[in-house]
Design a protein that fits this description.
The protein has 205 residues and is mainly α. Among the domains are: 53-90; 100-203, Four Helix Bundle (Hemerythrin (Met), subunit A), CATH 1.20.120. It contains 9 helices and no strands. It has helices at 2-8, 12-23, 38-61, 64-90, 109-121, 125-142, 154-161, 164-177, 185-203. It is elongated.
Length: 205
Amino acid sequence: MSAVRAEQQVDPGEARRNAQQILSGRRFRSTSTPRPLRGPLKWLGDRLDALFRPIGRLFEAVPAPIWYLVLAGLIALVAWVVTRAVRRRAAPTGNTATARKIADEHEDADALEREADAAEHDGDLARAVRLRFRAGLLRLGDRGAIRYRPSVTTGEVRRTLDSERFDGLAGTFEAVAYGGRTAARPDVDESRREWPHVLEESGRR
């Protein structure tokens, strides 16, 4: 009975005032956290909105079929670039094709030698090196030392002959014909001096 009387004696208005006083205390109030980047971020957002809003309107104004055509064109361009890159990588280098730069020359060793001498006399040392190398390959084929064909590679001939002399001549030829190195007088002299020895070695195999 005393508990019921105590509850009946509590003034509701007084209870509300007490609750409001408690809730207004510091521990029940949120503190404002400083936001130093709020201003710069708002400025940046306004600028980006001003920049991209016209672009968005442009995208909306262009019909969908036009975008399909643009996308197809981009895909075709990427495919063309990739195909071109693959073909360049697959193109023969100095070690995979020996005579591409002089493919239009006659398949006659003596004629090639004469043309090499003429090129050397005219100062075209690179041409002399290339022609004499081709003549050497033809003579190796005539002797049966290699299976000669216009597309024979220096790598094939190296493996067949296993000759240090030929390896030196092939290295010079590749550097001049495919590596862009300027031919010099020692290169021509080496070609003239070493090829007879390579042919002689091939005959002893």
